[in-house]
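Why do we care about 3D structure at all? Because function follows from shape, and shape follows, mostly, from sequence. That is the central idea of this module. The next example makes it concrete: a single protein chain, its amino acid sequence, and then its structure expressed as tokens.
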Amino acid sequence: MIYCFLILYLYTLYRYNMGLTQIRKQKRQDIIHRVSVIVCAHNEEVNLPECLGKLALQNYPGNKVEFIIVNDRSTDRTPQIIDAMCRKYSQFKGIHIYDELEYFAPKKRAIDTAIGYSSGEIILLTDADGRPGPDWISAMVSYYSEDVDMVLGYAPYEVIKKDPIPKKILALEYLSHASISAASAGAGYPITCVGTNMSYRKKVYLELKGFGPYRSIKSGDDDLFLTLVRESGRYKITYAPAAAAHVHNRPPETWEQFFNQRIRYASKGFDYPFKVTFSLIMYYIFYLLIFVGFIIGLFKQAVFYNTLAVFLIKSLADILFMIKAGFLIEDRRFLHWMPLAELLHLPYVLTFGLLGQIKQYRWADSDKKPSD
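And the structure:
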């Protein structure tokens, strides 16, 4: 049975490799659109000043962009930071939300409110701890050909050579998410994205009536909205791999923050359409078979060698895929850690795949985003 799963896995990777090739072929446009950049901030007095400073330095025509910064029920100095920025720059607009609605998840409500005030044709989103480069807006907008309605982007972790190995592995794992996002978009069925760097035409949001059935779910302002767009079958979605389109992001600083964040990511597994949920279940079962195979292999040598062969073939395919994706997305910093990442990925998937369905997590004080 495990070889059947391996064949299916390799076929999926083959399709994703073809998807990366399609993303590489896309042509960028030299068109200036009216853009509304939205940032939602909940108790972000530490991160927000640098984020707003980066936005103020964008190389984009001032009369074609506005920055809508939403104070989402903050109890620190976030409101004052927003107001000060709005007084300094006319392009910045502040919105303050002080209450919470039972039927509307906080961050989704904040985004919805901001879009209601927006005047841009393109909605561009990042988080308060995002660090976009000066050409971020121009780069993201350049992927909007006439038939493109949504552009997904990459938010690489800010990790340097002096950082400990665990942070480098986390950065590599985040690259793997981006690789799947780009590859699946290129294959015509995008399955994931990050709210730290994504965009869509305003008309798409309005035509789909916002977050629709997902608006009360606390998490998923990014990939669940992507699900709505994709499943409608009416819009073209692509990926922006260029380095100029990246928004740098900080990795979790504590183990508690890391565990809560990853459990939160995994908690939406059964909120997706059946096709996606079924694929995730098959992926989980494949990893479970490998794990069980190694356990049984402690007592049966033949099982051990068969399982090892499957694991090594899978790992080699993963490494080759990640190398191709790393070159496309222009982030090859930690690809040499892939062998170690492959060893850690097995218990990682099994642990968080299970804990995510228990849905026991909390928003740690240092992990203040009201959604991912």
